[in-house]
Amino acid sequence: MNLMNDIETSDPKISDMILRELKRQEEGVELIPSENYTYRSVMQAAGSVFTNKYSEGYPHKRYYGGNEIVDELETLAIERAKKLFGCEHANVQPYSGSPANQAVYFALLNLKDKFLGFNLTSGGHLTHGSHVNFSGKNYTCVSYDVDPKTEMLDMEVVRKIAIKEKPKMIISGLTAYPRKIDFKAFQEIAEEVDAYHMADISHIAGLVAGGVHQSPIPYADVVTTTTHKSLRGPRGAIIMCKTEDRLHDLYHANSKKNLAQLIDSAVFPGLQGGPHDNVNAAKAVAFNEALKPEFKTYATQVVKNAKALAEELMALDIKLVSNGTDNHLILIDMRPDGLTGEGKLIQNALDAAGITVNKNTVPYEPSTPFNPSGMRLGTPAVTSRGMKESEMKVIAAGIAKVIKSKGDKTVSANVHKDILELTAKFPLYPGMSILK
Ligand SMILES: *Cc1c(COP(=O)(O)O)cnc(C)c1O
């Protein structure tokens, strides 16, 4: 067993798959709004010898020896997260977005407690109370929805539901909602009904860090986010919170823990074992990048590109949910094109054209999540590649052709030529073969 074997010689099968995946990513237009291209430096940190370490516990309170450097690493990751988002407390150990949310529920709710979340069909996440998810099975979830006409959230409606249902926690945040979220209004409702407010900014963390979306940090009790979406870091998540438990006397009168301590002990030992120190190193690298002025330019361009893509699509007679976008994502409503329930067909046709998107439900979806009537697109990845408004026009034209053709194979093949020509002008990871 040679520890120094390179993957090309030790495992040609996997090595070949990595190369083929690199080519796929390089040649395609990546429009899945939860995906991004991370920095090479992030991949180097994630692939580093920190993979080998166990460090259950928190900095300077570990169960194993040999953690001097890991303590330094995790402390720096926490400091950078606090500086980037301006939060009072940060826990950088959650493995991913779903476990981060699970940890918050575990910290603040008892089994069967009621919380209020955004309807999955209209833009919420599985972990915001879907009946097939732990969040819907372990807790009692009631949901708020968008207005059927404007397809946007109406905070007065959210408020009325909160007053009627008296949830213990209210969740704000999105996975498929193309509009801004008013975290301040959510907080006011939460305070009015004595509920905790958890903001899940997994999708928009990069926009928040880049200053182009309102931050929930001054308002929400707890904020969770993944690090691999618009934030452009490694796959993982963090939890941020205030120190003080605003509802201590009401819900945790028997506990000596403040909010930060409740969250920390829910992550470890409540839910997880040892942190993934290699990924935490990569999170720290990504936070450092997001602290640079260039990241503001990036986040601004993500939103500009989404606006340009949305306007061009609408000019080509494509219907968008809520008729536009304020953030990084766009939801196409294909019903006016006679494609109700044909999300899968068009997703495949776009795939054949080299455009990667995901089929998605539209608000009040008449079909099913497997065969929905919408298509979700986003601009974080193409913006990381350096594409701007003029490239959005080429992409919009391709998408419109594929949709209007109702998935015709010849049309997809023709659009594919334009896409290959476009992506060839934006090399991804120049010079990279297998990560070295
Ligand atoms: C992506 C996402 C998650 C889940 O993150 P995973 O890393 O896939 O577990 C949770 N909440 C929201 C709002 C998301 O967009």
UniProtKB/TrEMBL annotation:
<feature type="site" description="Plays an important role in substrate specificity">
    <location>
        <position position="228"/>
    </location>
</feature>
<comment type="function">
    <text>Catalyzes the reversible interconversion of serine and glycine with a modified folate serving as the one-carbon carrier. Also exhibits a pteridine-independent aldolase activity toward beta-hydroxyamino acids, producing glycine and aldehydes, via a retro-aldol mechanism.</text>
</comment>
<dbReference type="InterPro" id="IPR001085">
    <property type="entry name" value="Ser_HO-MeTrfase"/>
</dbReference>
<keyword id="KW-0808">Transferase</keyword>
<dbReference type="InterPro" id="IPR049943">
    <property type="entry name" value="Ser_HO-MeTrfase-like"/>
</dbReference>
<feature type="binding site">
    <location>
        <position position="120"/>
    </location>
    <ligand>
        <name>(6S)-5,6,7,8-tetrahydrofolate</name>
    </ligand>
</feature>
<keyword id="KW-0028">Amino-acid biosynthesis</keyword>
<feature type="domain" description="Serine hydroxymethyltransferase-like">
    <location>
        <begin position="8"/>
        <end position="397"/>
    </location>
</feature>
<feature type="binding site">
    <location>
        <begin position="124"/>
        <end position="126"/>
    </location>
    <ligand>
        <name>(6S)-5,6,7,8-tetrahydrofolate</name>
    </ligand>
</feature>
<comment type="pathway">
    <text>Amino-acid biosynthesis; glycine biosynthesis; glycine from L-serine: step 1/1.</text>
</comment>
<keyword id="KW-0963">Cytoplasm</keyword>
<comment type="similarity">
    <text>Belongs to the SHMT family.</text>
</comment>
<dbReference type="InterPro" id="IPR015424">
    <property type="entry name" value="PyrdxlP-dep_Trfase"/>
</dbReference>
<comment type="subunit">
    <text>Homodimer.</text>
</comment>
<feature type="binding site">
    <location>
        <begin position="368"/>
        <end position="370"/>
    </location>
    <ligand>
        <name>(6S)-5,6,7,8-tetrahydrofolate</name>
    </ligand>
</feature>
<keyword id="KW-0663">Pyridoxal phosphate</keyword>
<keyword id="KW-0554">One-carbon metabolism</keyword>
<dbReference type="GO" id="GO:0004372">
    <property type="term" value="F:glycine hydroxymethyltransferase activity"/>
</dbReference>
<dbReference type="InterPro" id="IPR039429">
    <property type="entry name" value="SHMT-like_dom"/>
</dbReference>
<dbReference type="InterPro" id="IPR015421">
    <property type="entry name" value="PyrdxlP-dep_Trfase_major"/>
</dbReference>
<protein>
    <recommendedName>
        <fullName>Serine hydroxymethyltransferase</fullName>
        <ecNumber>2.1.2.-</ecNumber>
    </recommendedName>
</protein>
<feature type="modified residue" description="N6-(pyridoxal phosphate)lysine">
    <location>
        <position position="229"/>
    </location>
</feature>
<dbReference type="InterPro" id="IPR019798">
    <property type="entry name" value="Ser_HO-MeTrfase_PLP_BS"/>
</dbReference>
<dbReference type="InterPro" id="IPR015422">
    <property type="entry name" value="PyrdxlP-dep_Trfase_small"/>
</dbReference>
<dbReference type="Pfam" id="PF00464">
    <property type="entry name" value="SHMT"/>
</dbReference>
